[in-house]
Design brief:
64 residues, mainly alpha, 4 helices
């Protein structure tokens, strides 16, 4: 995997925000969500986890 420019990871995760939130609403974990979307993502798993965790906290405030 090639390195991406600083800030691109967050933008890429936000591009998939609706799909990520839909998967969280269906009960998917961050790992499952990454696995489902990984063929369309260029970000690394740690980068995805970091940004997706923020989306999950915002979407499911009682899960924090």
């Amino acid at each position: 995997m090639t390195r991406i420019a600083w800030g691109k990871g967050k933008r890429e995760v936000l591009l998939f925000k609706n799909e990520i939130n839909d998967l969280f609403a269906q009960g998917a974990t961050i790992e499952e969500t990454y696995r489902i979307l990984s063929d369309r993502l260029t970000v690394s798993k740690p980068t995805f986890r970091r940004h997706a965790a923020v989306l999950r906290r915002d979407a499911l405030p009682d899960s924090a």
